[in-house]
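Hi V.,

You were right to ask for the full record rather than a summary. Here it is.
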Amino acid sequence: MHEHVRATAWVRGKVQEVGFRWWTRARALEIGGLTGYTSNLPDGRVQVVAQGTRADCERLLELLRGPGTPGRVTGVTEIWGAVRPGYDGFAIR
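Predicted structure:
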C-alpha cells in the first residue's frame, strides 16, 4: 500500500465555475503527500493528476466521488500509472 503511483482522473458533471479545482487542491493538501494538479478541460470536465501512495490517491478519488464536492459530479473515470518527475506540490492550472 506504500507503493507510489500516479492516478489521472476525469470528473464529469457541473464541475466548472463552482470552485471544484480549488476544493480538489484543498483536499489533496489535507491528505498530504500528494503532488500533481487539477485543471479544467474544454469539454466541461475537470482533470485531476495525483501522485503519491496508492492509499492517498484512492482517498482523493473517494472524495471526488463523494457527496461533499462543489457542483454536481455525475462520474469519475481514472487510470493508474507510474510516477512521473516534475511535480512540486499540488497546483491549480
